[in-house]
Amino acid sequence: MTLAINEGLTGTSATKDDLSQTETVLRADIQATEKTLRGEIVSTAESLRAEIQATEKTLRGEIASTADALRAEIQASEKTLRAEIASSADNVKTELRKEINDSHISVIRWVIGVGISQTAIILAVIALIKF
Hints:
Layout: H1 2-10, H2 16-130
Transmembrane segments: 107-129
Organism: Acidithiobacillus thiooxidans ATCC 19377
Keywords: Membrane, Transmembrane, Transmembrane helix
């Protein structure tokens, strides 16, 4: 009993009122912390949304820029290939014309040769008939 009285006098024992006050203070602290954390969550969410939008805008710009660069590269390649095709076609046409001209010359030579041969044969036949 002496111990209990001594403890009561020194004030180290918690009373119902002390516990109630502590509970009230703790509840208020919890509510304040919850309110602060909710505010931080909202602020962080807004910040992240803004960052996502900025990143999306940047990436869309990069995509558009890359697409434009690729289109330009494709057009340049197409132009180069068309020029190469036209040049190759011109070379083929030139070669074909040369071969056709060479063929014409060969045919003319052959016709002249056959004509001379026929003339020689006719003259030979005429010479034989005269004898």
